[in-house]
Write a structure and sequence with these properties.
The protein has about 250 residues and is mostly helical. Among the domains are: about 120-215, Alpha Horseshoe (Serine Threonine Protein Phosphatase 5, Tetratricopeptide repeat); about 220-245, no CATH class. About 60% of the residues lie in helices and about 0% in strands. The longest helix is centred in the N-terminal third of the chain and has 35 residues, at about 1-35. The chain starts with a helix and ends with a helix.
């Protein structure tokens, strides 16, 4: 009786091990074909009985997802197949990177549009620390990819999101004038630190745009004389503007 029980336990353990191995093998195959853009192979593997929930759970454990590889490589057909079968569009790696981050870094506008159409968060944060993390728009701005910036802004990306480094500062300090203009038009706020750093790095044309924005006429409402703190604050702003040569 004991030997029969032990044999049953052994068989059960072996079956469990084989099932785990099968899950790992499935993911490995999907990762390989997504990375290589092997559409036929990937679709054939999916047809074997793909379980989105199982693969989402396994991807969380191993911190890698075929969605990231397909998005970054621009394999639209593979990416669509994964999304249609329920893989998480905003699945994040340990550092917070989502498939959208990979698509933007890989300059894959088709992947970006498809992910956004499936509800990807355009303001997803990758990384952490005092800088406040990096968003897809930050990557696009830093690369000077104006088409990608336009796609993300139209999808609702916040031009003022981020910590110390915003999309505007990312573009400005490396001299991407076109992107800087795009972001300002979309409502990005210009700060003194970014303007000065851009000027100090020798990007004169971009710096002129930033300082011109800082010198835009102020909308000042009449302030009661009794409201001294507000009056002093406006005086300080005017002094800074005069130091910039603003009229």
């Amino acid at each position: 009786m004991i030997r029969a029980f032990s044999f049953t336990v052994l068989i059960g353990g072996l079956a469990l091990a084989l099932a785990c191995a099968r899950r790992a093998a499935d993911l490995t195959i999907l990762l390989e074909c997504a990375d290589r853009g092997e559409v036929t192979r990937c679709l054939a593997e999916l047809e074997k009985g793909f379980d989105a929930k199982r693969h989402n759970e396994l991807s969380h454990k191993v911190q890698v997802s075929p969605l990231h590889l397909a998005a970054g490589g621009g394999s639209i057909e593979i990416l669509k197949a994964f999304l249609d079968r329920g893989l998480l569009v905003d699945f994040a790696l340990a550092d917070g990177s989502t498939p959208l981050h990979f698509a933007v870094i890989g300059r894959q506008s088709g992947s970006v549009k498809l992910l956004l159409a499936h509800g990807a968060n355009p303001d997803a944060v990758s990384g952490s620390g005092s800088g406040g993390g990096i968003r897809p728009l930050d990557f696009a701005a830093q690369a000077g990819n104006s088409d990608m910036v336009d796609i993300l802004l139209k999808a609702g990306a916040d031009p003022n999101s981020g910590g110390r480094m915003t999309a505007l500062s990312s573009a400005a300090i490396v001299g991407h004038t076109t992107v800087v203009k795009q972001l300002i038009k979309a409502g990005a706020r210009v700060d003194m630190t970014t303007a000065r750093l851009t000027r100090d790095r020798g990007h004169k044309q971009t710096a002129r745009i930033l300082f011109a924005e800082l010198c835009r006429p102020l909308q000042v409402l009449p302030i009661p004389e009794v409201d001294e703190p507000i009056r002093q604050a406006n005086d300080s702003i005017r002094q800074v503007r005069r130091s910039l040569g603003c009229p």
